Records
---
Amino acid sequence: MVGGALGWQVHQRRNRALLLSGAILFFFIFVLRLHLTIPYFPSSLSDGVSSPSSSFNRDSSCVSFLNDVAWDPHNSSSYYWARSPQVVACQFQRLARANASDLLSGSWVVVAGDSQARLFVVSLLGLVLDSEEMEAIRGDLFKRHSDYRHVVGEIGLKLDFVWAPYEANLTGLVMEFKRNLNYPDVLVMGSGLWHMLHLTNSSDYGVWLTSLRNELVGSGFSAHLFWLGMPRLINSMLNTEEKRVKMSDAVVAAYDREIYQSKLLRQFGGGPLLLLDVESLSRKCGVSCTVDGMHYDGVVYEAAVHVMLNTLRI
Ligand SMILES: *[C@@H]1O[C@H](CO)[C@@H](O)[C@H](O)[C@H]1NC(C)=O
Ligand SMILES: *[C@@H]1O[C@H](CO)[C@@H](O)[C@H](O)[C@H]1NC(C)=O
Ligand SMILES: *[C@@H]1O[C@H](CO)[C@@H](O)[C@H](O)[C@H]1NC(C)=O
Ligand SMILES: *[C@@H]1O[C@H](CO)[C@@H](O)[C@H](O)[C@H]1NC(C)=O
């Protein structure tokens, strides 16, 4: 549970439960059948916010639609959740500053990874801070290859960015939380690009992901756990020859396979981490949303932040 948000969530849930129609129920029964075939389904993500009520069906099915975001083809800064009946029933929404702040108040959020994770932090702070506050911290935020902490005093949000370009760094971080018995409320992790560029060995990547998964499963985490997926790489736009060679489409596909095979993700194999699907979000935003084929405009990470926040509301 995220501090301060529970009352609000319960209220939301009650409202939503009332909105269930017969047609939607039919759909849930169908989805529930699919879910029952997943062998391992961790409870940690819904700790404290799920109750054995009728909304259970809705919650677990909505998780699979969280990343169903579409982009306005005429305006690359405009995105919305897909308008299919199933997605509409989940009532996902872009949260305004006050609502995002409510949801995150009193919580400790840790985001660990490479430059994609840093961009995610920028978007998250951009949502809870006003533009003046954002300007004031911009310099610190963009110091490359360093950790960063920001406390938003008014709402008691503690946000840590941990520079962790390799999977080993993420596993080390998780071990540290366990050693100190001190766990964040929300943990967002992601890596892969550094491994791809510097080691270029997908099976080694898979080995590390499996060890990260093993470290997380059965740990004391009751946190909301997320995996920040790799962006879509546009090979011809990558800015060095080395990147174009090593980060080829075939290598990217092999790395993707390892992510699924490691059973790290909740959506694929019932793993501990919920995917924030940056690949899908960046692909939908499109070529015009990136200048180097790897780092995307803020709007892509902002969408990922909203996907995460909506998960916290489920
Ligand atoms: C594009 O979308 C953004 C965000 O929704 C909006 O603020 C902006 O006015 C839109 N631009 C155009 C040209 O419609
Ligand atoms: C956002 O906050 C406002 C004011 O606090 C509230 O009226 C509104 O219902 C909230 N929106 C959502 C989606 O909860
Ligand atoms: C991250 O992991 C790499 C590879 O194991 C290691 O060389 C590096 O020192 C670690 N970096 C940090 C910041 O822990
Ligand atoms: C790739 O990684 C695997 C697993 O760590 C290792 O067994 C293999 O030797 C590596 N391959 C190369 C070419 O380094």
Note: The beta strands are 69-71, 79-81, 108-113, 148-152, 157-163, 186-190, 224-228, 274-276.
---
Amino acid sequence: MPSAAKQVLSLAHFVILLLSLGAASTSLGLIQANTNNGMLCFFFLTYSQVIADDAGPTFNMPTCKLSIASAAIATTCLALLTAIELISVLYQTNIKTLVAKILQIGFFAVSILFLFITTVVVAAGWSQTCATFKNMTTTQPSTDFSFQCTGKLQAYIIEPNGAEFIAAAVCAGVGAVLTFGALGFFIVKQMRSDDDEYGTLISKN
Ligand SMILES: *[C@@H]1O[C@H](CO)[C@@H](O)[C@H](O)[C@H]1NC(C)=O
């Protein structure tokens, strides 16, 4: 493959990885900010849980910790992949050892899996909570408590923003799709460069 085409492929791969990294870290930041770092969990709240905990929901904390951990793992893997790609763009080298390639594919797979988990947990968790609060505001209308799934949830120590939970789920989902695209790029690049490297491999052995 001509080296110009190779560079374009590398650059495109790098940009997609950078976008995935941005999406994953945005998702992580939004979840952390709206759960007080996992200490207050507004996911999967049921009616009985809401009325039982005035100080702020400490229920279902494992689901919040899971979504934070998932987004953090994906962000870390994507940061590593982006750094590796940056080095290969800057120095126009390609990592050639099989172990390194397998490791990179592992990072891709882990990123995609954990971004998917983040998407599902946040989307399902906030949907359940939305349904509960919507039900409460319609069955017991009160003037001092209005609720919207995309608005701020007042009357707690922190005021989680529904729109930000939705944005966190969307970012994680978009990040997963982009990472999948980046994995495709990576595989194409490997297959193409194998043609070039085959000769050097044989001559080395
Ligand atoms: C809806 O709210 C009422 C009280 O406002 C409660 O008794 C009922 O259990 C709630 N239903 C659900 C599905 O949360």
Note: The helical segments are 3-34, 47-52, 61-90, 98-139, 162-204.
